[in-house]
Description:
Elements lengths: L2 H32 L2 H31 L6 H9 L3 H49 L8 E3 L5 E3 L10
Antiparallel strand pairs: 1-2
Amino acid sequence: MNQVQDFKNLLLQSIKHLQVLKTCLEEEERLLSQRDLEALEACTQRKQAALQQVHTDIDTRRDFLQAQGQEASEAGVQAWLADQDPKLAQALGKGWAQLVKLLSQVHQHNKQNGILVMRAQQQVGVLLNLVKNSQGGTPSSGKVYSAKGASRDVNNGRTLGSA
């Protein structure tokens, strides 16, 4: 195969693997919101496998660019494309742009999932403090929210049993 076909195949494979990762992240977001831990564990395993494929694609693309005398970066891809036939470069450039856009979407989904995980950890922390306080532990200065949205101190002198 020639270099252009090799690069095209790399792009198609990378796009496919990023789409799989994006789907996993979308599923993970849904499962985090639903707090379905069993399904989340299976989803995480699929996400890890997809992430490994993406890393392999990055390594393969890096090796390809370095073999062409280019740096493994956006600038290296653009420089390599500039050396190709203009029609082929345009088509491959569209594929590259699709890959970059998809990568941005994957980053956004991952960021959103991180926020969901952080919120869940904060909620668990508040609940653990409530349990600790109700069992005679050292009170903390955490806050909880009432049904009307007003905040109040966790340490209000009542035990969990009397709340």
